[in-house]
Amino acid sequence: MPSYPYVLLSAAVSLDGYLDDTGPDRLLLSSPADFDRVDEVRASVDAILVGAGTIRADNPRLLVNSAERRAARTAAGKPEYPLKVTVSASGELDPAANFWHTGGEKVVYTTEKGARRLREDPVAADVVALGDDLDWRELLVHLREVRGVERLMVEGGGTVHTQLLRQGLADELQLVLAPLFVGDPRAPRLFGPGGYQEGRLRLVETRRIEDVVLTRYEPTAPGTGVLPAAADRHWLALACDLAAECPPSPTAFSVGAVVVAADGTELARGHSREGGDPVVHAEEAALAKIAPGDPRLAGATVYTSLEPCTHRSSRPTPCARLILAAGVRRVVTAWREPDTFVPDADGSGMLTAAGVDVVVLPEYAGRAAAPNAHLAP
Ligand SMILES: NC(=O)c1ccc[n+]([C@@H]2O[C@H](COP(=O)([O-])OP(=O)(O)OC[C@H]3O[C@@H](n4cnc5c(N)ncnc54)[C@H](OP(=O)(O)O)[C@@H]3O)[C@@H](O)[C@H]2O)c1
Q1: Could you tell me which residue ranges the CMP/dCMP-type deaminase domain spans (predicted)?
Q2: Which end of the chain has fewer surrounding CB within 10 Å, N or C?
């Protein structure tokens, strides 16, 4: 399964939801202290991305302005400035724009057509062509695997934010609400029309900064099929946290599980040996809390820190079969079952053979295994 960077969307909007006005100059929505907060976030990431539209409209530099923060980056062995990234299908980019002549390394992700155009009219950046169309997952995998980007800050504009959120690729949205109105329907909005996740996002923070308010949200809706979404990572992390709450046992794994509906509503959670039951498994405990036949189960995802069991001596029905019987068709897990108790257990294989989409996110395997360190052979 490919891994992506952590993707943080950052934007400031007016009270009527606009990113800018239609005047020639950039509309300053944030307050001075909030610009400093943005500088701090920039200093914490490996790369900053904006769309070509923002380069054209604002001619931004996208620097870490604080000398102390840059010094801290170099002291930590990082480049002084985060990598600057832009996307353009057309390749129509002004070689004189500030973006190319300030800060550290730059990369443009584009199409074959855009790359041809950039060979004729080059900019001071690496150019990566991703085929006839630009696929965001391919771009994120390239950033992670080729450029080593683990945290990516996306600073707009609306076209880019809308795509990343709608495709389930944004881990976090940092939204600043500024106390002013734009009132011009020709001005750009943060999010365009289209299909977003159903249900509610998770509000993780609100912070007053002078006269603006920072709100931070996480998406909650599981991905679909075998493609992981950012929200899958959050729910799997919760399952791993639940595993750490299990009373340890010398004869069974400590596992956490969460069942989440398609709209991001948590239906139930459970962990091994919960409620004083010495043999209950995490998925079993969670599913037992949902009424059989609940119509949300068919579109739900089960998150489990360890892949569901296929054999167990404690009870007749293994968890993989309980999941199938519940009608769940998607499972996200962190850790394939080691041979500790059952040789060659393959819960993922059994579920896949039965038509369930199984997503394994091995980057969480360490967190899933940690509460089971006492079982190590
Ligand atoms: N308030 C804030 O926090 C904030 C932050 C940033 C920007 N803004 C404002 O937002 C406005 C710009 O937003 P915008 O939506 O017009 O532009 P944008 O999102 O910055 O850039 C859009 C451009 O990026 C490229 N692009 C986007 N998705 C692509 C894809 N899937 N494949 C290939 N290329 C892709 C295209 O470039 P090509 O046209 O070259 O093909 C597209 O025209 C400006 O007014 C700016 O001031 C505000």
Answers
A1: 230-344
A2: C
What is the value of pTM for the model shown? 0.94
Task: Find out whether the beta carbon of 14 lies less than 6 Å from any atom of ligand 1.
Answer: no
CA–CA separation, 26 and 333 (whole Å):
45
Number of CB atoms found within 10 A of residue 70's CB: 18
259-279 pLDDT, tens digit per residue, is 999 999 999 999 999 999 999
Neighbours of 245 (CB within 10 A): 13
230-375 adopts what CATH topology? Cytidine Deaminase; domain 2 (3.40.140)
Average pLDDT over residues 221-238: 96
CATH topology of domain 6-218: Dihydrofolate Reductase, subunit A (3.40.430)
Instruction: Report whether 279 contacts 215 (CB < 8 A).
Output: no
> Which residue minimizes the CA distance to atom 30 of ligand 1?
134
What is the CA(89)–ligand 1 centre distance, in A? 11
Q: How far is the CA of 52 from the centre of ligand 1 (A)?
A: 5
**Sequence spans of domains, the chain:** 6-218, 230-375
